[in-house]
Design a protein that fits this description.
alpha/beta; 37% helix
């Protein structure tokens, strides 16, 4: 595996790979890699001839008072994981290289970035869309891999690719979970042992949503209420949102029919966690 640290190096490598007719699979990350990231790398490895993983903690997607400074940075462990997954290139640029002095251009993703997490983290998805556009321009991938846990992000990036005609296939892979159901996340490292135990409530709540829908419940309000009881029963959990949404528009649905997403975001102590499930009514629901 080769480590590249500048956009110019990365671009030269990508141009050479494309000239050789190689398909490039890309896994963009902020580091602190875990088995969820590993599953994306494995998918890229199985479907593409070359695999690139980026490691960049993007300041533009963190708001004032958020965890940019304390976000876990584990470069040696990340490097080892990438080597185990047979990654070809680990791209680890500096902030100065990604955002050179005087840089002003940003990418606004419209209403998709203003709902759900966007309501609670203003500007977050503008930062995500901007850095993903930059990375796609530098890495020039054929396919890019993302996890379903960050569902809103995947919808935003698909819209970005379509609207700007970027020509990248966006591949969304299932959420990888711990044995007790907690979605794999770099921010899980923030949780104390007691908070980690409490965090399983997210998976419990989503499981209840699936059970209710399978039993015939079609009222989003009743589903939200039931999940709220589970989550707010723990005084240490603070809910940002519980919602049942359309999978493409991200708008709340009036009735549960067809394909829907049940999504939630909560705080456990000082750690914000998100999770979701996609349900197809009439297909295992």
């Amino acid at each position: 595996m080769e480590i590249l640290t500048t956009a110019s190096e990365m671009r030269r490598w990508a141009e050479a790979a494309r000239c050789e007719g190689r398909t490039i699979g890309f896994v963009p990350t902020m580091g602190a890699l875990h088995h969820g990231h590993a599953s994306l790398m494995a998918a890229a490895r199985s479907e593409c001839e070359r695999v690139v993983v980026s490691l960049f903690v993007n300041p533009a997607q963190f708001g004032p008072g958020e965890d940019f400074d304390r976000y876990p940075r584990t470069i040696e462990a990340d490097r080892a994981l990438c080597e185990r997954e047979r990654v070809d290139i680990l791209f680890a640029p500096s902030v100065a290289d990604m955002y050179p002095p005087g840089a002003e251009t940003t990418v606004d993703v419209g209403t998709l970035g203003n709902v759900l997490c966007g309501e609670f983290r203003p500007g977050h998805f503008r930062g995500v869309a901007t850095v993903v556009t930059k990375l796609f321009a530098i890495v020039a991938p054929h396919r890019a891999y993302f996890g379903q846990k960050d569902y809103q992000q995947t919808v935003v990036i698909r819209r970005l690719v379509e609207d700007l005609r970027l020509g990248v296939a966006v591949v969304v892979r299932p959420t990888i979970r711990e044995p007790d159901g907690l979605a794999a996340s770099s921010r899980n490292a923030y949780l104390s042992p007691d908070e980690r135990r409490r965090a399983t409530s997210l998976f419990t709540a989503l499981g209840e949503a699936r059970r209710l829908i399978a039993a015939g419940e079609r009222s989003p309000g009743k589903i939200r209420e039931a999940l709220g009881v589970i989550l707010t029963n723990d005084a240490q959990i603070r809910v940002d949102y519980i919602t049942v949404i359309h999978p493409e528009t991200l708008q709340p649905v009036e009735t549960v029919t067809g394909r829907v997403v049940v999504a939630l975001a909560v705080w456990i102590g000082t750690t914000r966690l998100i999770d979701n499930i996609v349900i197809e009514v009439g297909n295992g629901a």
